[in-house]
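Exercise 7.
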Amino acid sequence: MQDEHQVNEEDKLRQALARLGAGASSRSSKSRPLTPTPERRRRFVRDGQVVVEHQGSRGIATRNPSQEDQEEIERLRQSVKREQRRWEEAERSLIDIRAQLKAFETREAHAKIQITELNRELRENQDAIQTLKASLHQAREQAAEAARRAPRPVGRPRKEAAPAAVEMAETEVAEQEPVQWWVKA
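Solution. The predicted structure, written as tokens, is:
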């Protein structure tokens, strides 16, 4: 009896293993009818449609990159890092140049303001000079006219006025006569 029991258990285990081990192939062949499968109808791409193909991941084996591939990847990474550093340096340089440009524009604006103020001051000074020249010219005319109207004293000038009169006479002589530089005094 025990032998029969063992045989039954072995048979049961074999059947279970057959079911598990044979898996889909044994079950699929038994579950499918033997009638031929109808062919799928092909659909053709029309204008405006996009063909999508699905790639199964089962058939793709992950390959380990070779030494050359790894060197190429590392070289490309280094190249990307260099380009990133160059880009960052260019950004910093651009920021510095913009700051310098702003400083120059500020200095230019200040210089323009200063030029405007100096031009205004120059015009005011030129107007003041013209006014003083006109006043001087008018004063000279008045002095000349007063000298013509005033009677000349006959005789000797007073002692107090003598030094002033001598200086005035010397000034008139100096203005009228050219300087003779070749003659030593």
